[in-house]
Design goal:
- The structure is a single chain.
- This protein is mainly beta and 65 residues long.
- Helices cover 11% and strands 34% of the residues.
- The protein is globular.
């Protein structure tokens, strides 16, 4: 089970059967460049694996200007 915190929302969501960052983004209906995925202070690329028990934060990328 992967625990995900979305943006500034403090309520975590749990997902089963997610193995990669790309699968997680797809589940969240986000494209690769739409969000940053962070695990333990490290930015993860779409090809990185996620493990059972991981807690990740997904921060939407917002352009202002």
């Amino acid at each position: 089970m992967i625990t995900v915190t979305l943006g500034t929302d403090k309520t975590p969501v749990a997902y089963e059967k997610i193995k990669t960052v790309l699968q997680l983004l797809g589940k969240l209906h986000l494209r690769v460049n739409d969000a940053l995925v962070i695990r333990d202070g490290e930015l993860l690329t779409p090809d990185r694996s996620l493990r059972h028990g991981d807690h990740v934060t997904v921060r939407p990328v917002v352009s202002r200007g």
